[in-house]
Design brief:
The longest helix has 28 residues. The protein folds into 2 domains: 103 residues, Rieske Iron-sulfur Protein, CATH 2.102.10.10; 255 residues, Naphthalene 1,2-dioxygenase Alpha Subunit, Chain A, domain 1. The protein is globular, with a radius of gyration of 23 Å. The strands form 5 sheets. The protein has a 7-stranded antiparallel β-sheet with strand order 13-19-18-17-16-15-14, with helices on both faces. It is an alpha+beta fold.
């Protein structure tokens, strides 16, 4: 029996041990068994439009350089000089043909090759004959529909196999480019990202992102404001499904009262936006037919890609990643995603819609962060109150979007990976003894 997850289908019971949120040993296991083994999102292809573009990223506890070389190839380098280890790039983003280490001025081109060293006479002529002094490349980098991932496990399965059934929902996001006047321009990330921290365990943010059950009680003020602008909670609002997509991925897909820039207008958007959204729907229907166009335009979806990528396709699209630096502390980065080459006025409407709910000062994010931090505080009682209940919806044949099937999907995968890693550690300890 697992120490961390107790599932009883007959009793419709699913419990998670609160040690999973507070135990430093589990945190260390996660770094090795999850963040060093799974596909992790690093960025979107639209962020590297031109040769020489780069972004400095923290992914899975590593400092990386996300680049497009002069040869047009997208790569990820470990941002660490092979000489003495200093960061090669300190800027957050830019365009450069060369990265120059601040410490000893070793220089590398944007394909990672060592191209300059002060006073070479102190080194052997064949100092870099084997390429070992070039920037070290993350060997596994793959993309799907513009979403780029890295994996620090050279033997990992392909990204497409890893994403599995989640690809259907990433397609629904990427296909929104077809709503624009220039669909060939695709989707683009809007600069700059939002960065903030939360004093809570990383898994709580993932859970919250696919938890529609908390929507109305926690964010009532937002729904009240939307109602004043013509957003009506219809009989189908907050109705939908929660789906286990396999491999720890999950989604909830549903209707809501709020608007959607791709295809749902409310009075608060203004008359100009109405014409743009009507045209969006026409183009989607011409490309995909009425049924799929309706799904893309009208339905919301919150997608959780195991372990730490969330795409909220709701009143705007946000890409959110998060990484723990301690059992009770996470660093979060959020990006807005939209169809490229939108009408300038409509882009402002979209951005306002995004920031109002999803921004760090919006109606949702501060409330959510407060809830997560309250949970983390409550876990101080875990010795006496030791288990979270994640059973909602187990008594239904088809889980709804307000149930917790999405979270159970994550926890089953998490439990398998952690218990396997723990068993390997124990076995290694016995062998050593």
């Amino acid at each position: 029996m697992s120490k961390y997850v107790l599932e009883d289908q007959e009793k419709c019971s699913f419990k998670v041990n609160r040690k999973a949120f507070v135990d430093p040993k589990i945190y260390e296991l996660e770094r090795e068994a999850i963040f060093s083994k799974c596909w992790l999102y690093i960025g979107h292809e639209s962020e590297l439009k031109n040769n020489g573009d780069f972004h400095r990223r923290k992914v899975g506890g590593r400092n990386l350089l996300f680049t497009r070389g002069s040869d047009g190839v997208i790569r990820a380098f470990y941002n660490s000089c092979p000489h003495r280890g200093a960061l090669v790039c300190r800027e957050g983003r830019g365009n450069s043909k060369v990265f120059r280490c601040f410490y000893h001025a070793w220089s590398f081109n944007n394909q990672g090759e060592l191209v300059g060293m002060p006073d070479k006479s102190g080194f052997a002529e064949d100092h870099n004959c084997d390429g070992s002094k070039n920037l070290s490349t993350v060997k596994r980098l793959e993309s799907y529909r513009g979403f780029v991932f890295v994996n620090f496990d050279d033997n990992a399965i392909s990204l497409e196999d890893y994403l599995g059934n989640a690809k259907e929902y990433l397609d629904l996001v990427a296909d929104q480019a077809a709503a624009s006047e220039n669909p060939e321009a695709g989707m683009e990330v809007l600069m700059d990202p939002q960065e903030y921290s939360v004093r809570a365990n990383w898994k709580l943010l993932g859970e919250n992102s696919v938890d529609l059950y908390h929507g109305v009680p926690t964010h009532k003020t937002y729904f009240d404001i939307v109602a004043t602008r013509g957003g009506v909670m219809e009989k189908d609002s907050l109705k939908g499904v929660g789906v286990d997509l396999g491999n720890g991925h999950a989604v909830m897909e549903y209707y809501s009262a709020w608007p959607r820039p791709v295809g749902k207008w409310i009075e608060g958007y203004g008359e100009e936006a109405k014409g743009i959204i009507d045209a969006n729907i026409e183009r989607l229907e011409a490309k995909f037919g009425e049924e799929r166009a309706h799904r893309i335009a009208k339905k919301n979806r919150n997608i959780w890609i195991f372990p730490n990528l969330v795409i909220n396709d709701i009143m705007a699209i946000t890409i959110r990643t998060f990484y723990p630096t301690a059992p009770g502390y996470i660093e979060v980065t959020g990006y807005a995603l939209a169809a490229a080459e939108e009408n300038e006025n409509f882009r402002q409407v979209r951005n306002d819609s995004f920031l109002e709910f999803l921004g760090p000062g919006g109606f949702a994010t501060p409330d959510d962060n407060e809830a997560l931090e309250l949970c983390q505080e409550g876990f101080q009682n875990s010795q006496e109150v030791g288990w979270n209940d994640i059973s909602r919806g187990m008594n239904r044949e088809v889980p709804t979007a307000t149930d917790e099937a999405q979270m159970r999907a994550f926890w089953r995968e998490w439990n398998d990976r952690i218990t396997f890693a723990e068993a390997k550690q124990e076995e290694a300890g016995r062998v050593k003894a």
